[in-house]
Amino acid sequence: MNPRRSARRGRLPLSLRRSPVAWEHQRPTWREARPAVIAQALKRAQARPSGNWFVVGATQDIRADRPLARTVAGQEIVVWRDATGRLVAGPGVCPHLGAPLRDSPVRCGTLVCHWHGLALRGAPFAGWEPLPAYDDGVLVWVRLDDVGGEPPLEAPVVPARPALARAVTAVYVGVGACEPEDVVANRLDPWHGAWFHPYSFVDLTVVDTPGTTGKAPARAEGAEGSEGEEGGEAATAQEDGFVVDVSFRVAGRLVVPVRAVFTAPEPRTVVMHITEGEGRSSVVETHATPLGADDRGRPRTAVVEAVVAASDRRGFAVARGMSPLLRPLVRAAAGRLWRDDLAYAERRWQLRSTGRFPG
Q1: 291 φ, ψ to 5°?
Q2: Is 235's pLDDT higher than 90?
Q3: Could you give the CA distance from residue 330 to residue 295 in angstroms, rounded to a whole number?
Q4: pLDDT digits (tens, 9 = 90+) for 32-65
Q5: What is the 3-class SS of 271-339, one letter each residue?
Q6: 298: buried, middle or exposed (CB in 10 Å: 19+, 13-18, 0-12)?
Q7: Kind plus residue range of the DSSP H or E element containing 176
Q8: How far apart are CA 214 and CA 220, in angstroms?
């Protein structure tokens, strides 16, 4: 391991870059970023089961007065909580005359159609049928068996995370003109980080890629097991990771060096686990949800990125208490990265759709 990641840590989670290299003088990574390696990792991710579960948004976006609405693969979906607090999901089209339920209010756990007052309490009624829904504490999922076409799972494949009670969480949502595989391929290309995002990442080295050593990446310490994970599938995904040493830029020459492992536990998810350095056990989950075509016929995909940050430093308890103030900052940082990464994903789709993609 790089000596800058020694087991001993200073009082502050920062390091000083002693010999910074200008962007144009950093080591090129294009030879290492072999298209075949990325393509094979993507293919393996696409072969893993999802159980037909799709991320629709953040747990915190479920409000008491209106539903969370999302279009998934062209299907309008609404999600809310009933009078007992149970998560409910179903079609977003009123079965009576087709009103958009996304615009209807929730009253005491009942979704009331604003056209004619049809009241939905979460059970089958008047032609409306609920869909399986799941709240993992950070994200909300809906199962669409007719869209996924796979054998269904009782719960989604939720990545291992640090204990939520000891973490700061934030969720960013963005939309791009591409398909989920383009988003996943972007995340399975860690080599672009210091070149494409120099404002956030420096000194990036990919130290291990799938199939090069046969060793499984280290599992993040303190991570929770997931109710949705199948043991064999989770182990397979853990063994199929990209191991990266990278420093997060703070200001000037001040950085936070870490080791991160990128894995794909299911076809539409890539997870970055911090396994060594500051914030060990923290995760960044990138979920890609197909929305449907835009008015130009291009596919649209939502990127739902969940940050679950943890630390064993004493001061982190103060940070947890400031979560409402920190979340907008985390979302803004994710948004800046995804303005670039969605351009990458959109470009990839554009080239694929016209038969010009070189990978």
Answers
A1: -100, -40
A2: no
A3: 31
A4: 999 999 999 999 999 999 999 999 999 999 999 9
A5: EEEEEEECCCCCEEEEEEEEEEECCCCCEEEEEEEEEEECCCCCCHHHHHHCHHHHHHHHHHHHHHHHH
A6: middle
A7: strand 168-176
A8: 18
What is the number of alpha carbons within 13 Å of residue 203 lying toward its C-beta? 22
Q: From 18, 23, 16, 22, select the one nearest 255 (Cα to Cα).
A: 16
Q: Which own/partner contact pairs does 334-341 have at CB distance under 8 Å and 24+ positions apart?
A: 334/170, 334/172, 334/305, 334/307, 335/172, 335/174, 336/199, 336/200, 337/197, 337/200, 338/172, 338/174, 338/303, 338/305, 339/174, 340/196, 340/197, 341/183, 341/186, 341/187, 341/196, 341/303
Strand partners, 142: 54, 133
Bridge partners (DSSP) listed for residue 290:
301
Cβ-based neighbours of 326, under 8 Å, separated by 6 or more: 168, 170, 319
Structural element, H or E, at residue 172: strand 168-176
Amino acid at 190: P
Residue 293: per-residue pLDDT: 97
Kindly give the pairing relationship between strand 242-251 and strand 254-266.
antiparallel
The position carrying tokens 């923290």 is 282
Burial (0-12, 13-18, 19+ Cβ within 10 Å), 187: buried
Helices (H), the chain: 35-47, 145-148, 180-187, 193-196, 231-239, 316-321, 323-353
State the average pLDDT over residues 66-82. 98
Q: Which two tokens stand for residue 291?
A: 């929305």
pLDDT by residue (tens digit) across 124-169? 999 999 999 999 999 999 999 999 999 999 999 999 999 999 999 9
Return the exposure string of 60-89: e unless at least 16 CB atoms fall within 10 Å of the residue's CB, then b.
eebeeebbbbbbbbebbbbbbbbeeeebbb
CB 70 within 8 A of CB 302: yes
